[in-house]
Structure formats: structure tokens, C-alpha cells
Specification:
Elements lengths: L1 H49 L6 H31 L7 H12 L10 H5 L8
Protein name: DUF4220 domain-containing protein
InterPro entries: DUF4220
Pfam families: DUF4220 (PF13968)
Amino acid sequence: MVGRGKTVTSIESTLILKKLLRNIWSAWDVRGMVLLSLFLQIVLYILGQRRRYSVGLISRMILWFAYISADWVAIAALGKLSSTHALSPTKNVLRALWAPILILHLGDLDTITAYALQDTQLWTRDISP
């Protein structure tokens, strides 16, 4: 009987957590993705300059992750922004400013043009279907 009580409690707490996360995501979905994109651009700016002088494994892994995920986050945020705008076009005027900011994030920084030479040579993979 005691085991069942713990199982029900853990299932209930899991459901409450899922509901809480779903509410947070519905309120902060585009805003959170814009902030994450901005954070990744800042990481790329700082570590992009340092990668010439520092060859630490942790900094290289963080830089590689930020480089790989920065474009994905900006594209996903633009997609979410456009689908949200189609549902309620007059809900939030501030969202109209986020699209140009995200497009600027897709332009990448001058401090890191590519993580590796192969990325520069294979740039066409980004535009192929």
C-alpha cells in the first residue's frame, strides 16, 4: 500500500510539472527562443575571438555547440513567430521587431566565419532541400 501511494504521488507530481512547463512554454515560447538565440550569438562572439589563442577542450565544445545550434534556434523561432502571427496577427506588436533581429542572427558574426574549413566549403548544404 505504501508503494502505491508513492507511485500516485510521483505520477501526480509529474503531471503537475508537465502542466507547469506547458504553461511556461505557451507564455514564453518565442521570447525564450529569441533570448536563447541572443545568448548563443554572445557566446559565439566571445569564444570566436578566443579560439585563435585558446585550445581548451571545454571552450571548443561550447563553441562548437553554439555554432551548430545558433542557426537552428533562429530558424525555429522564426517559424514559431510566423505560425503565432498567423493565428493572432494583432496580439503582440513587439513580435514584429523580433523577425529582423532573428534574421540578423542568421547572418552570423565576423569573429567566426566557420568552425572548420569544411563548413565553408560545404555551405550549399544549408540551402538544398
